[in-house]
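Human: If only I could read backbone structure tokens as easily as an amino acid sequence. Take your time, and here it is.
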Amino acid sequence: MSLTTDVFPHPLAPRWYRIYYIIKTPSDFAKAINANKPVVLMFSADWNEACKVMKKPFRDMGLAKRNQAVFCLVDVDKLNDAVETYRVEALPTFVLMKDRGEKRRVVGARVDDFKNMGNDI
């Protein structure tokens, strides 16, 4: 059983995997940031155009690095505490977590900077 299955089991079939997880509750957020793998958080909102633009690069990196990290889309409208804890001031904000600490951050729709963040996973 893989880590991602342990953290968030897939409801349809155990051999399927998710490219990223949509985090809407504090308990799901706690599970995600306590994973034994690096975690890439995308703080996002459905109504934000820059977030819509960055979903494809986020999804692509999640697919390419699915065995190396856990990718989580954090809904800022539902998780105000996480937004305050991680000092999210603009959308989208990407945070790479390693060993339960922040290793790197990218703010805004900066595709090249986000792709470079993938090298640190």
Observations:
- The beta strands are 21-23, 39-44, 70-75, 93-98, 101-107.
